[in-house]
Amino acid sequence: IPAEEGVVGLADLRGAGEAFVTNAVIGVIPVRAVLGLGVELAGRRGPLLPAVRRAYLEWKSERARSVLNRR
């Protein structure tokens, strides 16, 4: 799954079919709105969400195994 990390402008968000936020605790969640900026997104489970979540969990598991194997 091609992905980019970086600064995203409002025009990019308005044109996005799906957008996600990730962190170590929550994992991958869809962006529904950008508060105060008038950007509304579908925020629903689009076709990419399940694949992105799976890829994130696989990456996180591989990373954890790598760290544990160094000990």
Q: What kind of sheet is the major sheet? A: 2 strands, antiparallel
Helix content: 25-40%
The dominant shape is elongated
Report the mean per-residue pLDDT as an integer: 81
Describe this protein's structure.
By secondary structure, the chain is an alpha+beta fold. 38% of the residues lie in helices and 17% in strands. It contains 2 helices and 4 strands; from the N terminus they run αββββα. The protein has helices at residues 10-15, 49-69, and strands at 20-23, 27-30, 33-34, 39-40. The strands form 2 sheets. Strands 1-2 form a two-stranded antiparallel ribbon. Strands 3-4 form a two-stranded antiparallel ribbon. A hairpin with a 3-residue loop joins β1 and β2. The chain is elongated and about 50 Å long. The N and C termini lie far apart (31 Å). The model has no long low-confidence stretch (mean pLDDT 81).
Key features?
71 residues, alpha+beta, 4 strands
Provide the fold topology:
Layout lengths: L9 H6 L4 E4 L3 E4 L2 E2 L4 E2 L8 H21 L2
Please summarize what this structure is:
With 71 residues, this protein is an alpha+beta fold.
